[in-house]
Each structure stands twice: as structure tokens, then as C-alpha cells.
Amino acid sequence: MTNTSRNTFVRAVLDGVMALVIVSLIVVRNHSFTYDANPLLALRIRAVDALFGFLFVFLWQFAFTTLNQFDGFTSARQKFFSTTRVVTFLTLATLVYLWFFHRSLLSGRTSLLIFACLLGYELNRRILTVYVGDLIAARDPQRVLILGSGRRASKAWRQLRTESHNSVRLIGFVDDRASSEMPPDVASRYIGTVDDLSSILLREVVDVVLIAMPIQSCYPLMQRGVHLAQAAGSDVVYLDDIYSSNMSHNDVERQIFRELAPRQQCKLLKLMLKRVFDIVGAAVGLIAFLPLCILVALAIKLTSEGPVLFVQERYGLNRRIFRMLKFRSMVANAEALLPDLEVHNEADGPIFKIEKDPRITFIGNILRKLSIDELPQLWNVLMGDMSLVGPRPMTRRDVSLFSEATIMRRFKVKPGITGLWQVSGRSSVGFDQWVSLDSRYIDDWSFFLDIKILLQTFNAVFRRSGAM
């Protein structure tokens, strides 16, 4: 669904690369390179071959993404027909390429093998994807809220149950109608009016708001629901039959759900680059700082009782909980002592900060001033729970005290070890400004902004600005 769409481009490209490898192996396996004394020269890749390889992967990715092959809402029947058509087209494209540039490699057997192997690979990949995807989706289903309660809402709910029962969990229905006027299956899952939507988005994890209202009579409600959902960072999906059409509805490729704001492929490519940069940066950082980490671990263990690492549940991407790592800078029972210190909180908003926190150990004070306590989070970055740059991950306590649903938008990106908050003063920055900086980062994000923040972070650590 919409939250998985950011990975669609990468998955489709990798799928295309695998298909290209299959085609190459078939061609090579079914031809004896006897016309050249040097086998390396016989197998050389010319510019035209490299161009065809690029076009093959591009066409494969474009076709399967356009036909929603990686969309959980596309039925198995739709996927089978569209897969056969795409494989047929790309097989013909490959044969045309071989005819013009490598005619000696072309044969009836090669043609049949290319088609059969590509079709078999893609169908098997789909079966495996469905099986593995169902297992993953059952553990972490998409949370969907339906805006509407009439015929169209029932249609959407029926489609979700039929096609995506393992990958979707319904939060409930929201509408301004009386529950007595709703169908029984909708009324039993009714959770509030549009006026309640903001508070629902604040207390519930809502990945997707599905608009299922008649546009003519409910446009103001729809528009308000869209505004609230997008302000809170939830994706918005609508029923594709929102407009009437005289065209036939028997097209097997017709989709029932559409994204209101589809992600651009260039943005997906940038996110892929960001992930690669995170993996490389985290791996290099863990290796480079390993001696320092060993010394810090020994210092913590020798100077205070308790574990070396402090492990705490934090909210990550899409408000999913993960276990964040830090070097322990406080006494072992620091969290148990927090309620007694709440009256001394010096920070505004839901966050907790006091300048001279009695729970901080001597070594911990040094670690915090130098930001060394954050180094274990490189492991979180490597595992994909965090990024090198992004909003800071929030604790359960802090999130439970949020008062506005718009703050939830910060969870639309991965949390980071560093971010605009850290390079803007950290503890000297108020909560409202903190939220503003997170929104600014989400709106203005680019790969070069991440590089700029990382460079400013090193400067801030060196100057010890804002550390507490």
C-alpha cells in the first residue's frame, strides 16, 4: 500500500536486474563462442549491449511499477495477466535486439527459453513475495482508517478484507452520520465524527486514511479529512470510482485504490541513496570508533553498577517501536527515578530536561558533553531503524504527552542520530521550535542537506554547544 511505495522503485529495479541476468545466462548458455580465439573478447560488452541492458531494466521496472505488480491491492488475476503481457513484450524486445546486433545468438530454442524462464521467474517471485509478504504483513499490518460510512465505505472495507486481509488492519470508520443509519458491519466499527479525527490521529497509529465518501454531497467533509490526515503525516488514498465514466470497467488492470499524492520516482531514488549512505556511514563509523567504544564500555563498567548499554523503546518511522541503543550515562535505575523528578522539569512541552540531572554519572557527564553516548546508535542505523540524519527518536512518555496531531508528521521519516535540532542548540531549543525544525527538515530534505547537517554536527560536538 502507500507506505510500501517508497520501496517499490528499488524492488522493481532489483527485479529487472535479476531478469536481465536470466536473459544473459540463457543467451550465453545456448551459444558456443567459437568465433573468437579469446573468450574474454568474445564476451565483451559493447556500448550497445550496455545500453540495451539499461533499457531492459528500466522497461521492466517501469512496466511492473505502472501495472502495480508490487501493490498489495492488485488481485492475483490482474497480476497474472499483466505479468504475461509484460514478459511477452520484453521477450519480443530482446529478440529484436538480438536480431539486429547478435543475429548468430538468435534461435527458436533461445526465444522459447527466454519467455518461459522470465515468466516462470516472475510468477515464482510473486508466489514467494506473497508468502513472505503475508508473514511480514501479519506481524506489522498497515493501519487503515476509512473516512465514510455508506455504500462506498462498505465497498472499500469489502475490498480490503478480500485482497489485503493479512496486510491491513482496520482502525475504524469516521463519518458525521448517525451510527443508526450505517450498515451493521460499518456501525460496529464506527469510532467518531470528522471533528474527532484529529484526536484519533493523535492517539492511534494511522498509516492510511482511505477516503470513501460521495464527492458531490460530502466534498467539504472529504476536504477537511484530507487536510487533517496530511497535516498529521498519514497517507491519503481514495476510491478510483470517484468519477463516473462511460468506459468499460472490465479492464483487469483497473485499480480500486489510488494515492492522492503519489511519490515521485526521483524521490524514491534519493531515499535509496540516503539508505546506501546510512549503511556505509554506519559501517565505517562502527569500525573507526570500535577502540573508543571498548574504552568507554570499560570505563562505564568500572565506575558504576549496571549494564554498559542503555536500551530504550523509542518511536521510529511510521510510529513503529524499536529499541534504541546508547552508552549508559545515568544510574541503572534512572527511569524508575524519573517520576520523582518531573516537578523539576526545565523544558517546555512534553520533553523532560534538567540541567543538573542527579541521575547522570561522572563518566556519563563526560560522554554526554562529547556526544559519545550516541555512538551505539550507529548499530540502529545499520539495522535500518534509524538514519544518520533525521528527527530525534521520541520516547513513549514524550509521545503520550503530545497535544496536537500535526506533531505526528515527524514520524514520516526515519529518526536520526543527528538533525537540525542538534545543530541548532539542542537543549537550548524549545519544543515548539524543535517541532518547527523537524517540519522544516521533512519539507526541505535533500541528500546535500544531510551532508550539511553532518558537517555542522561535528562542529557542534567540537564546540559542545547545547549539550546537557
Number of strands: 11
Largest sheet: 6 strands, mixed
Question: Taking all residues together, what is the mean pLDDT?
Answer: 81
Give the structural class.
alpha/beta
Strand order of the largest sheet: 3-2-1-4-5-6
Strand content: 5-15%
N- and C-termini, Cα separation: 41 Å
User: If you compute it from the alpha carbons, what radius of gyration comes out, rounded to the nearest whole angstrom?
Assistant: 27 Å
Verbal overview:
The protein has 18 helices and 11 strands. With 468 residues, it is an alpha/beta fold. The protein has 3 domains: 2-138, no CATH class; 141-262, NAD(P)-binding Rossmann-like Domain (Rossmann fold, 3-Layer(aba) Sandwich), CATH 3.40.50.720; 266-463, no CATH class.
In short:
The chain has 468 residues and is of the alpha/beta class.
